[in-house]
């Protein structure tokens, strides 16, 4: 059976490898004149070393927690909610796409209160609009095209 630390160490090394690969395709630069690939490569190298240390410590000690049971339904609903948000952001706008995200992610929980879920989604959408669109000026639609005047 796999130990949690083994999975974490391998996972960190895989993420580091991904960013090292794509970061190395950018100009690295020098310490005095850093290029766009400098920070991703350095951060990925640190992450990879950290993952290797965790993995080696676990392999030497052979101790640690066993992997817990994974609730695949809940994980799938959260991932589906994020994917739906990404797909619906442009056509529905930030407020409604956030609401859809919360509704789908709520399917992962046991006790559902649809009124609370929809209210939470709308509240999250309005707060996100205030922070990202009004606060820092991010350009994204708040509403669907037919409600653009609101």
From TrEMBL:
Superkingdom assignment: Bacteria
Boundaries of every DUF1468 domain copy: 7-141
Residues spanning the membrane: 7-25, 37-60, 72-105, 117-137
Keywords, sorted A to Z: Membrane, Transmembrane, Transmembrane helix
Claim: Disulfide bond is one of the keywords in the record: no
Protein name as it appears in the record: Membrane protein
Organism of origin: Nitratireductor aestuarii
């Amino acid at each position: 059976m796999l130990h949690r630390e083994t999975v974490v160490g391998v996972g960190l090394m895989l993420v580091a490898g991904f960013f090292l690969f794509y970061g190395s395709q950018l100009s690295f630069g020098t310490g005095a004149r850093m290029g766009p690939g400098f920070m991703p490569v350095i951060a990925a190298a640190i992450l990879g070393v950290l993952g290797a240390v965790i993995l080696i410590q676990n392999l030497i000690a052979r101790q640690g927690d066993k992997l817990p049971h994974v609730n695949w339904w809940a994980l799938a609903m959260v991932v589906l909610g994020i994917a739906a948000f990404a797909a619906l952001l442009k056509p529905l706008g930030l407020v409604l796409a956030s609401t859809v995200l919360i509704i789908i992610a709520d399917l992962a929980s046991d006790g559902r209160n649809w009124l609370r879920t929809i209210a939470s989604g709308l509240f999250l959408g309005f707060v996100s609009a205030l922070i990202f669109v009004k606060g820092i000026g991010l350009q994204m639609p708040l509403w669907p095209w037919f409600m653009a005047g609101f």
